[in-house]
Amino acid sequence: MGQQLFHHSRRAIHDIRAREFIRVGGVPLPASWGGWQEAVGVFLTFLLVLMLCLEPILYCFSDPHSISFARHCKSGDKVVFVYSVVSSAAMLMYFLLLSDLSVLSTRVSAYALVCVRVISEVALFLSGLTFFVLAFACAVSSLEQDNLDFKGIPKSGLQLYKITFEMFSGSHYDMLGDHPALLAAVFVYIVTTVIFLTNLLIAQLNCAYQATYQDMLGYARLNRGKIVSETMLSVSKKRWASFRDGLRLDERVEFGEGD
Question: How far is CA 19 from CA 28, 36, 150, 171, in A?
Fold first, then answer.
């Protein structure tokens, strides 16, 4: 955490002194935070600092009834849940930063770039799905029915999402038979979303993949060169000179057999 805090603070101070900013929603931010890796790193650093402030062991230090370095005490148990949520988000940020290792393989890097390119299609699918869920949830709530799963717009929307993702149990489907109008509305919803929207998403992903994969191999090589060049800026001159001298490029070598 200390290294991350020092690194991001130094770059932020450098950008502020150089008056290099980017605007996000009208708020000026240091220009170094423009890249997604740097932004994720800053967010990860914030989460680590927050974890330190919410560390249950620190809360247990002030509890006279707990032993030293206890993980569970009356004071610490109050922040355990919040601490667990923050630590879960931090772990996701760690693994998101590890995605840079995909540059070690051109094929894996190309696959990762394709995933980024086609994620917009998934976002369109989710937005369309949300529209239909809201529409049918309002329609179902207007029906004269006493099914507890579809009592109100929020509960109806949740059940419709579960139907789309095949999380709706079979016994609950049987209960729909007591309400023909509700069953008909759910049937129309299934045809609209599960059959139409899902297959449309598959077709969109297939077309987008075929259109972008041919160019992604070249982009993957360019991305690898970009990451290497950006990483070289963090290498000290002393370390680079030691590496360069260790290669002994100024020494002549004998020709090998076949040269």
Answer: 10, 20, 55, 63
- Give pLDDT tens digits for 80-123: 889 899 999 999 998 988 887 777 777 777 777 778 788 888 99
Amino acid making up residue 235: V
Indicate the average pLDDT of the chain: 82
Are 50 and 44 within 8 A, CB to CB?
Answer: no
Measured distance CA(77)–CA(71) in Å, rounded: 9
Bin 248: left if φ > 0, else alpha if -120 < ψ < 50, else beta: left
Q: Where are the alpha helices (DSSP H) in the chain?
A: 2-17, 36-53, 56-61, 80-97, 106-141, 153-164, 170-175, 180-190, 198-232, 237-247
- The answer to whether the predicted template modeling score (pTM) of the entire model surpasses 0.85 is no
**pLDDT confidence of residue 85:** 92
**How far are the Cα atoms of 64, 164, 227 from residue 43, in angstroms, in the given order?**
35, 33, 20
pLDDT at 191 over 90: yes
User: What is the distance between the alpha carbons of residues 49 and 9, in angstroms, rounded to a whole number?
Assistant: 13
pLDDT for position 90: 92
CA distances from 112 to 90, 212, 219, 251 (A): 21, 12, 11, 42
Report the alpha-carbon distance of residue 133 to residue 139 in Å, rounded. 10
Q: Specify the higher pLDDT residue, 70 or 31.
A: 31
Residue bearing tokens 């139907």: 163
Residue in this structure with the two tokens 């890249």, named with its chain if needed? 35
Distance between alpha carbon 253 and the CA centroid of its chain, in Å? 50
